[in-house]
Amino acid sequence: MKKEHIIVIGGGASGLVAAITAKRNGADVTILERNNRIAKKILATGNGRCNYTNVTASGFDYNNPEFVEYGLTHFSPQKAIAFFEELGIAPKVEGEGKAYPLSEQASSIVDVFLYELEYLEIPVISDAYVTKIIPKQQEFLIYLEDGRQFDCTKVILSTGGRAMPQSGSDGSGYDLAKNLGHTITDVFPTIVKLKLDSPYLRHLEGIKMPTKVDLLVKDEVIQSETNDIIFGNYGISGPATLDISRKALELFHAGKHPTLRLQLVTALTKEQVKHRFIQLQNKPVDASLVGLIHKRYISPIIKEAGIEKQNTLIQELPGSQLAKLMDLLFDWRFVITGSKSFHDAQATAGGISTKEIDNQTMESKLVPGLFITGEVMDIDGRCGGYNLQWAWSSGYLAGQHASIGNKYDTHQ
Length: 412
Ligand SMILES: Cc1cc2nc3c(=O)[nH]c(=O)nc-3n(C[C@H](O)[C@H](O)[C@H](O)COP(=O)(O)OP(=O)(O)OC[C@H]3O[C@@H](n4cnc5c(N)ncnc54)[C@H](O)[C@@H]3O)c2cc1C
What we know:
The structure is a single chain. This protein has 14 helices and 19 strands. It has helices at 13-24, 40-44, 65-74, 77-87, 106-119, 172-179, 201-204, 239-253, 270-279, 285-289, 295-304, 319-330, 386-402, 404-411, and strands at 5-9, 28-32, 53-54, 91-93, 98-101, 124-125, 130-136, 139-144, 149-152, 154-157, 188-190, 194-197, 208-217, 220-231, 235-237, 259-263, 332-339, 347-349, 370-372. The structure holds flavin-adenine dinucleotide (FAD).
């Protein structure tokens, strides 16, 4: 059987693992990368530390558990850790199963990829922006924007989604796939800051606190997270709301009018807070909240409770206003009005329909010989190492199966 010549389009997370895996299997591999260097996005991951996997990852951490399960089993987080250990990365597993290089530098991951590409003699053609893929009999013709042309026997499409387009993933992979007959599902940013409709954002800006956050549609709780939130002048971010953003935006785009409920006080019961107000009844309302909630919440929450003068004594407050204030401490709702753009997002929801991809090989069901990896397909995971894990898992499967012609050769 002839030796496979594979072109990997995109030298990002999934493309690099696909290329290394295929080359180790004996295929000829070339990477076409539009930037002047590989893996630009990896440098930005995990706040520059690269949270490269999560040891607890399972299908339920993704939008389509059934589809990803096979890949996560065959190239599990433990296999990812072993893969990178072999390349030189000592792992450091932190809280919630998040794994980082012990060096605490995302650049270490990029460096070990560069060493391995050199060792395996995998050519990387940079400044190579692919604009067209044409299947031709048993081959593919690949066209670049600048007119250059390549041919190969298999293609691995690893162009990423649309998150952080400045890193190179501008969504061009969707057009490439669409031209080959693939369906692209609705695409929107995820793991992203949420915009809120609130007159208090200027006051709240800068608050960073662990908080219980519920995502609601009317009064139904859709998702709950307890972690840091960070208020900005546009709305809210921080791990709790980044985790909620996927579901929130799905509901928002479906016209379901989702809201966020913040529980500012979690360490005390309502009864205990009521008792506190009784004890502090000679104090002005603003002073009674000092030491209970973040200072920047005080003025907005008093206004929201309909209390006109901040220095009204607790004992002078009408019962209804005191009750409203108490309620807000445990249930303060904010209307979600969208999110920041792909420039601020960590991942993309939506993409090439997974109905058209074989989940055991990552081969297109429509175009034999075309393999698809990573974020360009309609798969996204939670915040915390899950998206890179999917990049490695899907890249591994694609690399294995794209080079399968070679395997037959060596077995004969
Ligand atoms: C700021 C930020 C922080 C993140 N932190 C984490 C984290 O800590 N942990 C985690 O698990 N996930 C994290 N992610 C998500 C993770 O980085 C991505 O899910 C992952 O990189 C996707 O891999 P990919 O191979 O699909 O695409 P990418 O890594 O985006 O790679 C795609 C590559 O294809 C190239 N390309 C695109 N179009 C073309 C074309 N037409 N021709 C040639 N080349 C092309 C691009 O230049 C790029 O190099 C983060 C994302 C961002 C933006």
